Amino acid sequence: MWEDNEREDSPEELFQDALIGHEWVAGLLQSSIDTHKMSHAYVFSGPNGIGKSFLAHHFVMALSCLNPPPKVEGQLGFRFCGECRACRMIRDDKYPDVSVISLEWQARMESGTGSTSANANLKIDTIRSMQHEVSRAPIEAPWRVFIVEDAATMQVAAANAFLKTLEEPPARAIIILISDSDRALLPTIVSRCQVFELRSVPTETIEKALEARGADEPTARKLAALAVGRPGYALRAFFDKTHQDVDDRDEAVQEMEALLKADQAGRLAFSEELNSRWSAQGERRASVVTMLNLWLGWWRDLLLVYNGQGRYATNQDKLDTLQAQADRLHLGQIKEMLQWLTRAQSELDSNVSPRLALGDLFVNHLPRL
Ligand SMILES: [Zn+2]
After folding, report:
1. Mean pLDDT (10-residue bins), the chain, 369 residues
2. CA of 75 to the centre of ligand 1 (A)
3. What CATH fold (topology level) applies to the domain 11-197?
4. How far is the CA of 124 from the centre of ligand 1 (A)?
5. 288, exposed or middle or buried, with CB in 10 Å at 0-12, 13-18, 19+?
6. Where are the domains of the chain?
7. What Å distances lie between residue 239 and 14, 17, 362, CA to CA?
8. How far is the CA of 3 from the centre of ligand 1 (A)?
9. CA 361 to chain centre
10. Fewer beta carbons within 10 angstroms: which end of the chain, N or C?
């Protein structure tokens, strides 16, 4: 996530970028730092890719920066230099007083023990080893911070163990739970945290932010539309021309085109391929989620184009392909696909495997063109 630092801008500027549309949260968190009134536990919730982890890292930098810039009246957002030892180490995920716990981390820990059990949930052992760390004093910062990604995957036993830490929080620990939805967490956990729900950022806000950074109008409009409320996506796509997201879209569209033409065997093989990406965790798992999001966007566009409203489509640069496909589909097929994809998306969110979530869709519901 910190890899795309090819840009010429100062680190500080790059990090503030991703907070477009979430400045109010940053402002509240910074003022809690300024007045020494931080909570022991936070929930940052909101849709995938909205910037929750980014926000958590910024917050930690503002908490730990050795040389924060002075406060400017009326300016919202975090204050950190981006260049001191603490800022740099946090950015590189190497700061000793910040721990990131996630399914990926859990899988890495387990691979050392030779365990091959599934890593779809944060397990009670993972929570216990975190608790052990939480109770230790910070090494160099005033605080120890624990960022818990994939928090909603904790099942009851793990969540109850976690609750114990929240009930008696160590004085110098701050825990940040990251979750796609605060409703997916136990209410007893949520009630002990300060909750910040990050909402999708309006397309217009993203478009303006891109133009302010030098994008011409058509580029700003296209990327803002593709971003679907995620400013970080739009900025990365704009600044890093080689960034994968634009390629991801093209690849997802090509895969969908191939699937529409494929026979049953081809479709089953693809479903297996997705399953193995999903089981691989980490980036490969994330690629399945991204692909499904892109497909959903594509079928929404097909519905718009079918209804003669192509000007509202997200994939403005692919209107010809959309039109060609829409011409060969019935309205019922498009609507059915949208329902199936939405359902598959929520099933993947609840950690159902793609084989179960998508297999039936591929074999029985995806139209053959
Ligand atoms: Zn700093």
Report:
1. 39 53 88 93 85 89 93 84 92 91 86 67 92 90 93 92 90 92 84 90 88 86 80 75 63 88 87 85 80 87 87 78 93 90 83 79 83
2. 18
3. Rossmann fold (3.40.50)
4. 35
5. buried
6. 11-197, 243-365
7. 10, 11, 36
8. 19
9. 25
10. N
